[in-house]
Amino acid sequence: MLNPTNKRHKSNKGWLVEHVHDPYVQKAKIDGYRSRAAYKLIEIDDKDKLFKSGMIVVDLGAAPGSWCQVAAKRVDVANAKKPGRVIAIDLLEMQGLTGVEFIQGDFTDDAMLARLESMLNGAKVDVVLSDMLPNMTGVSTIDGPRAIGLCEIAADFAMNHLKPEGKFLTKAYQGPGYQEFFNQLKTQFKTVHTRKPDASRDRSAEIFLLCSRSK
Ligand SMILES: C[S@@+](CC[C@H](N)C(=O)[O-])C[C@H]1O[C@@H](n2cnc3c(N)ncnc32)[C@H](O)[C@@H]1O
User: In this structure, are 7 and 52 located in the same domain?
Assistant: First the structure.
């Protein structure tokens, strides 16, 4: 068994062995999801019921697209009468997904934000998802604040674009700046709950924050 305290664990080979044997990686292949991250959103939605047919979802940091796959199905983008919408953005290219509207670009860039807003055309959003992750340097004093910086920008977007009963789900890292971010969310939203789905590896400092504008 791999030992998280063993330095070899951090080598690419160790990561690859773990990845290949990861039950969520295997399940994602069978279920047709683009990444194991799908199961994090599935577990949170099964418990917290974020999505309903016909909803509008914005997915920040969407590539390769497994959260889009889950959201598109659960808001029923293929419904002929009242289709839901999933609008997604990522720095990276993303292979097309039926019913998902995608922008390639930097969400923190004003021009990209304007594009996203023009796609919304004044419509308010039911759920804002953010799984954005900056390029990691391995130095926690750099990575932590960068990751939290993205979360803060996502939270501002959610505050400005969510419906009064809307929800914001963001990934965050428990490290420098986390507690301040958590406290800030509590001033912006009515409720803030932490979620650590099974598919989120125990040794990972990642945690998900689910924020609601109403009780
Ligand atoms: C963990 S991945 C997202 C996985 C995705 N939720 C899924 O299920 O397939 C994080 C993504 O955030 C994107 N990202 C990071 N910073 C970004 C930014 N400023 N604007 C847009 N996307 C960003 C990265 O390119 C990366 O694809």
Answer: no
